């Protein structure tokens, strides 16, 4: 079925029982003036896109489906900075599809819908990418404050809102390249967009970094995601504590891999000096932040687990004391003083153990409270030292390989 049939559409003749190709290529909606092109082989072979709706209430109407347009931009994975080019290329393909399939009266409106969808999808992608960059540059202050608001960290350095605006501006400039070069192939269009965006003057701020720096930093963050510094991965030893326990060797290994990037001069060489300094500082801050955070989480977990274990022992001893008290009373009532004395000796020993365990519980609770009130003292704990030793060991291993 030739697309000109749509453009030259006459309602009475267009829908007829004899027009088998049209009937196969459409889904009729009862009690409606709409005919929706489906994705059947007949429709596809006729060159009709399933994204278009033919409105029979007025002649020659082919309106684009907004949801279809949005779906063409949305990928299966989280967007990265490459969306700036990817979305522009997608826009070009959709624009061509609209030009080929829309009636003359609907082209302008369909292109306007495409522009609106493009802006919406760009805003969503920019929001996601800005969040990813913030998680990298402000990992330490954002994460440690969730563990303990009084923990000292470096100050936040990244303005997510400003960075999002920068990404949107780049995407809109990429769109201008598309509109000015509608006939370029995908490869040539990407090259044109890339060179155009790289020629834009940039300052040394993170929020307005050059397009070249943007892509390099994005690749660095992507590489580091495989050795994630997400909030202290690790399975609690038990359900004793809301704090997760991370094996020190695992923590040290993650930190050592991040540190290796600092020694990989080739990876950072392409960055401008100002951005390179900020990326380097972020990696160092993140390593130390992770070290403190993992140690703090481990220490709090250990305190909770210790307290719970001691409370379990206390419960058992208290039950045993009650039982012994009953036995002692029974023998005393029967006048069996010597026998009662034997159990009384055991009871005295149990009471001594109970007193000792109560002291241990108070000591653990006091230590936990002190750490909560003075979180920076985590660097003086055994948990911090364990991770520090593991970190050094893992760094030495990486250097020897």
Give a brief description.
With 401 residues, the chain is mainly alpha-helical.
What does this protein structure show overall?
It is a single chain. The chain has 401 residues and is mainly alpha-helical. The chain is built from 16 helices and four strands. It has a four-stranded antiparallel sheet with strand order 1-2-3-4. β1 and β2 form a beta hairpin. α9 (160-180) crosses α10 and α14 (273-333) runs antiparallel to α15 (337-373). It is elongated. The model is unreliable at 1-48 and 54-59 (pLDDT under 50). Keywords: Coiled coil. Residues 300-374 form a coiled coil.
Helix content range of the residues, please? 55-70%
Beta-strand content bin: under 5%
Order of helices and strands: HHHEEHEEHHHHHHHHHHHH
Shape verdict: elongated
Number of strands: 4
Helix and strand composition category: mainly alpha
Query: Terminal Cα separation, in Å?
Result: 65 Å
Rounded radius of gyration (Å): 34 Å
Figure out the total of helices.
16
The residue ranges in which pLDDT falls below 50 over 5 or more consecutive positions are 1-48, 54-59
Q: Let me know the largest β-sheet.
A: 4 strands, antiparallel
Widest sheet, order of strands = 1-2-3-4
Mean pLDDT: 84
Work out the count of structural domains.
3
């Amino acid at each position: 079925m030739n697309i000109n049939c749509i453009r030259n559409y006459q309602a009475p003749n267009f829908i007829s029982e004899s027009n088998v190709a049209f009937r196969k290529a459409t889904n009729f909606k009862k009690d409606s003036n709409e005919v929706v092109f489906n994705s059947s082989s007949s429709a596809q072979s006729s060159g009709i896109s399933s994204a278009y709706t033919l409105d029979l209430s007025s002649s020659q109407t082919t309106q684009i489906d907004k949801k279809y347009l949005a779906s063409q931009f949305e990928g299966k994975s989280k967007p990265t900075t490459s969306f700036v080019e990817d979305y522009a290329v997608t826009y070009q393909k959709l624009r061509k599809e609209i030009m080929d399939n829309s009636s003359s009266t609907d082209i302008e409106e369909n292109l306007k819908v495409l522009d609106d969808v493009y802006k919406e999808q760009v805003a969503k992608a920019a929001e996601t990418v800005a969040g990813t960059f913030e998680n990298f540059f402000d990992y330490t202050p954002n994460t440690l404050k969730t563990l303990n608001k009084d923990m000292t960290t470096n100050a936040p350095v990244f303005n997510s809102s400003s960075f999002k605006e920068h990404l949107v501006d780049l995407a809109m400039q990429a769109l201008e390249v598309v509109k000015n070069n509608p006939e370029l192939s995908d490869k040539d269009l990407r090259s044109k967009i890339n060179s155009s965006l790289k020629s834009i003057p940039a300052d040394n701020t993170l929020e307005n970094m050059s397009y070249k720096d943007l892509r390099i930093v994005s690749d660095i963050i992507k590489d580091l995601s495989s050795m994630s510094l997400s909030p202290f991965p690790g399975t609690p030893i038990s359900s004793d504590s809301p704090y997760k326990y991370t094996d020190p060797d695992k923590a040290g290994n993650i930190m050592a891999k991040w540190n290796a990037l600092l020694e990989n001069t080739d990876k950072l060489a392409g960055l401008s000096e100002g951005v390179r300094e900020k990326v380097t500082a972020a990696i160092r801050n993140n390593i130390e932040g992770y070290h403190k955070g993992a140690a703090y989480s481990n220490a709090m977990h250990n305190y909770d687990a210790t307290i719970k274990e001691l409370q379990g022992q206390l419960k058992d001893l208290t039950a045993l004391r009650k039982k012994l008290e009953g036995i002692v009373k029974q023998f005393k009532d029967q006048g069996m003083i010597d026998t009662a004395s034997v159990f009384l000796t055991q009871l005295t020993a149990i009471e001594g153990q109970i007193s000792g365990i109560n002291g241990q519980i108070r000591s653990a609770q006091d230590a936990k409270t002190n750490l909560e009130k003075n979180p920076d003292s985590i660097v003086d704990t055994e948990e911090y030292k364990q991770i520090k030793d593991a970190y050094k060991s893992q760094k030495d291993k990486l250097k020897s390989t």
